[in-house]
TrEMBL record:
It comes from Chryseobacterium kwangjuense. SUPFAM superfamilies: N-terminal domain of MutM-like DNA repair proteins, S13-like H2TH domain. Pfam families: Fapy_DNA_glyco, H2TH. Keywords: DNA damage, DNA repair, DNA-binding, Glycosidase, Hydrolase, Lyase, Multifunctional enzyme. Belongs to the FPG family. Residues 2-91 form the Formamidopyrimidine-DNA glycosylase catalytic domain. PROSITE patterns: FPG_CAT. SMART domains: Fapy_DNA_glyco (SM00898), H2TH (SM01232). This is DNA-formamidopyrimidine glycosylase family protein. The keyword Lyase applies. It catalyses: Hydrolysis of DNA containing ring-opened 7-methylguanine residues, releasing 2,6-diamino-4-hydroxy-5-(N-methyl)formamidopyrimidine. PANTHER family: FORMAMIDOPYRIMIDINE-DNA GLYCOSYLASE. InterPro entries: FPG_cat (IPR012319), FPG_N (IPR035937), H2TH_FPG (IPR015886), Ribosomal_uS13-like_H2TH (IPR010979).
Length: 244
């Protein structure tokens, strides 16, 4: 599943279409696309793993899910995986194997933009307050909670916990105050590192724990285990990451 930094890169790629008017809209997403024709793409907003294409009087929410993708100015025949295609005089955008839903403009005002880990509006104090309200939650679940860390996915989770030396099954309420603040800060720091490495096509070269088998610090074998309520893959070192 694409994480927040990858969604920002998609936004950058689609930015040239902002200010352009839709001439044709199609695809098998289950909503009426006819009203989009003639509307101007006013802006593109991202919230974690979600992208909002904002038009004159409506918006379209894109979530790439696990295997979604997008294309620009492709010369391919549409297939059953095409959820939405938007055509402009200057080019076309295609979204595949993803969730595409209409959204009222009013709905955008209800989103907690301060929870977006990569947003200028990011509020670490609010994240800390939300975490302290759930002391029995595992840190692996906390980092993946989109209401707290919108945009964080499994890669970021594993790398952040390795960076700060915390085992994924540690409980939020057991973390010292300093370590809790470190968790919050590193979630944002690593996300921006992720963005730069992804932009340079070197992201995997910088992974220290995710999908790895040997700890780069002590040389011991890393533990691979499904952790938390979501049973997502965690990679961690029992020696260099403390269980709180």
């Amino acid at each position: 599943m694409p994480e927040g930094p990858s969604i920002l890169l998609m936004k950058e790629s689609l930015q040239p279409f902002v200010g352009k008017t839709v001439t044709e809209a199609s695809g098998n997403a289950q909503f009426d696309k006819e009203p989009l024709i003639g509307q101007t793409l006013q802006e593109i907003r991202t919230f974690g793993k979600q992208t909002y294409l904002v038009f004159d009087n409506t918006a379209v929410r894109i979530h790439l899910l696990m295997f979604g993708s997008y294309g620009i100015d492709e010369q391919t025949k549409p297939d059953k995986s095409l959820r939405l295609s938007l055509h402009f005089k200057t080019g076309s955008i295609y979204f595949y194997t993803c969730s595409v839903k209409p959204a009222d403009l009013e709905f955008l005002s209800t989103i907690d933009w301060e929870a977006d880990i990569m947003s200028d509006a990011w509020n670490p104090g609010k994240a800390e307050k939300k975490l302290k309200a759930r002391p029995e939650m595992m840190v692996c679940d906390a980092l993946m909670d989109q209401d707290i860390f919108s945009g964080v996915g499994n890669i970021i989770k594993n790398e952040v916990l390795f960076r700060i030396g915390v085992q994924p099954e540690s409980l939020i309420g057991h973390l010292p105050s300093k370590k809790l603040k470190e968790l919050i800060a590193e979630a944002r720091n690593y996300s921006f590192d992720f963005l730069e490495w992804k932009r340079e096509f070197v992201l995997k070269k910088h992974w220290l724990a995710h999908t790895k088998t040997i700890c780069p610090k002590c040389g011991r074998k890393l533990i691979k285990k499904q952790t938390g309520r979501g049973k997502r893959r965690s990679f961690y070192c029992e020696k260099d990451q403390k269980l709180y």
